[in-house]
Write a structure and sequence with these properties.
By secondary structure, the chain is mainly α. The chain contains five helices and no strands. The mean pLDDT is 77.
Length: 141
C-alpha cells in the first residue's frame, strides 16, 4: 500500500534536501495537473465558440449575397452546432473529472499517468472534426 504524500514528507529518515526535492516534485505535479485542466477548458471553449460560428455563418453569407449548400443544409445549421456545444460540455465535465482524479492520486502518492478515457476523448473529437470538415467540403447533408 502506498503511503500518503504527507506521510512521506514527514518521514524522519529523509534529509532536508530529500524532503525539499520531493516537495518540489509534488508541487510540479500539482501545477501540471492545473495546467492540464485549463487546457481542457480552453479546448471546450473553442468547440463551443466554433458551434456559434457555424450556427451564425449563414448570416454572413446572406449579408454578402452569396448562397451555399452548406448554409442551406439543416444538418450544418442546427445539428453540427448542437453537437459542438455538447462536445464542449462533455470535455469540460471529463476534464474536471480527470483533474480531481489525478489530484487525488498525487495526494495519495500513487499517480498512475494517462488514462484511456483521455485517449478515447481525443480520438472521438478528431473523428467528429473530420466529419464536420467533410460536410463543409462536400456541401451535402
Amino acid at each position: 500500500m502506498a503511503k500518503h504524500t504527507q506521510e512521506i514528507l514527514d518521514d524522519e529518515n529523509m534529509t532536508d534536501w530529500q524532503q525539499a526535492m520531493l516537495f518540489q516534485n509534488i508541487q510540479r505535479s500539482r501545477l501540471s495537473n492545473e495546467r492540464n485542466l485549463l487546457n481542457w477548458i480552453r479546448t471546450s471553449v473553442a468547440f463551443i465558440t466554433l458551434g456559434f460560428v457555424i450556427e451564425r455563418f449563414h448570416l454572413v453569407l446572406k449579408g454578402l449575397g452569396a448562397a451555399s449548400a452548406v448554409t442551406a443544409s439543416p444538418v450544418t445549421r442546427l445539428w453540427v452546432p448542437l453537437c459542438l456545444f455538447g462536445l464542449g460540455g462533455i470535455i469540460i465535465a471529463l476534464g474536471t473529472w480527470e483533474f480531481f482524479r489525478v489530484r487525488r492520486e498525487i495526494m495519495a502518492g500513487g499517480w498512475k499517468g494517462i488514462s484511456r478515457l483521455r485517449d478515447a476523448l481525443i480520438l472521438v473529437t478528431l473523428v467528429f472534426l473530420l466529419f464536420v470538415l467533410t460536410l463543409f467540403i462536400t456541401g451535402s447533408a
